[in-house]
């Protein structure tokens, strides 16, 4: 088996643009827990599934496996501070600087560009991480530019606000007429 140097692998993967999300859950007492996650993706439309990956040492992972439910807050442009706060060990993640509320029994960050509530569908071992598949039970979005991470810095889709465009479903419907 051929292996590559870990630092070279990280350097190449740093060029991959990733969405910035905060994954959240509540424990049995209702206390909120959350962490910044950039390994999030849609997986299936039928049934609606998403995936998130966690380092096996993640404290949030323990909570997610225990509760079997999680929320994914898709951060928007300008929410870099939230991403950093939820990525910092020992930070007061749900303190007074964080605007949040409970939605479907899960902590939801106010003003996020999107929200996905999930039931844990399955867990797959993947090297030093666990890949969690979430069955989507509710979701919502705001028409805001997304926060993305690449080359070890935050940004957004450079042409997002350039001009309003109809949703792709509107274009498809227009072609079908």
Task: Describe the fold and architecture.
By secondary structure, the chain is of the alpha+beta class. It has a single domain, classed as Pnp Oxidase, Chain A. It is 19% helix and 41% strand. The strands form three sheets. Strands 3-2-6-9-10-5-4 form a seven-stranded antiparallel β-sheet. The chain is globular.
Largest sheet, in brief, is:
7 strands, antiparallel
Query: In angstroms, what separates the terminal alpha carbons?
Result: 54 Å
Summarize the helix and strand pattern as letters.
HEEEEEHEHEEEEEEH
CATH superfamily: Electron Transport, Fmn-binding Protein, Chain A
Known CATH architecture: Roll
Which term fits the overall shape?
globular
Which CATH class applies here? Mainly Beta
Strand elements, count: 12
How many distinct folded domains? 1
What kind of assembly state do the chains in view correspond to? single chain
Averaged pLDDT = 89
CATH topology: Pnp Oxidase, Chain A
Helix-strand blueprint:
Elements: H1 6-13, E1 18-19, E2 21-26, E3 32-37, E4 40-44, E5 49-55, H2 59-67, E6 69-74, H3 80-87, E7 100-103, E8 106-109, E9 114-126, E10 129-141, E11 148-150, E12 153-155, H4 168-176
Antiparallel strand pairs: 1-11, 2-3, 2-6, 4-5, 5-10, 6-9, 7-8, 9-10, 11-12
Concise overview:
With 177 residues, the protein is an alpha+beta fold. The chain has 4 helices and 12 strands, in the order αβββββαβαββββββα.
Features:
about 180 residues, alpha+beta, Pnp Oxidase, Chain A, 7-stranded antiparallel sheet, 3-stranded antiparallel sheet, 4 helices, 12 strands, about 20% helix, globular
């Amino acid at each position: 088996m051929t292996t590559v140097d870990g630092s070279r692998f990280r350097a190449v993967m740093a060029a991959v643009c990733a969405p910035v999300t905060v994954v959240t859950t509540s424990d049995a007492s209702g206390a909120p827990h959350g962490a910044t996650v950039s390994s999030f993706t849609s997986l299936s439309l039928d049934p609606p599934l998403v995936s998130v990956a966690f380092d096996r040492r993640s404290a949030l992972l323990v909570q997610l496996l225990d509760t079997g439910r999680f929320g994914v807050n898709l951060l928007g442009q300008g929410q870099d501070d939230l991403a950093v706060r939820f990525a910092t060990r020992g930070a007061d993640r749900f303190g007074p600087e964080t605007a949040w509320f409970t939605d479907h029994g899960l902590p939801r960050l106010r003003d996020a560009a999107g929200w996905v509530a999930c039931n844990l569908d399955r867990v797959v071992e993947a090297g030093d991480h666990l890949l969690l598949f979430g069955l989507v039970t509710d979701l919502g979005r705001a028409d805001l530019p997304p926060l993305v991470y690449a080359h070890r810095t935050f940004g957004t889709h450079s042409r997002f606000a350039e001009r309003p465009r109809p949703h792709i479903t509107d274009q498809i419907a227009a072609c079908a007429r």
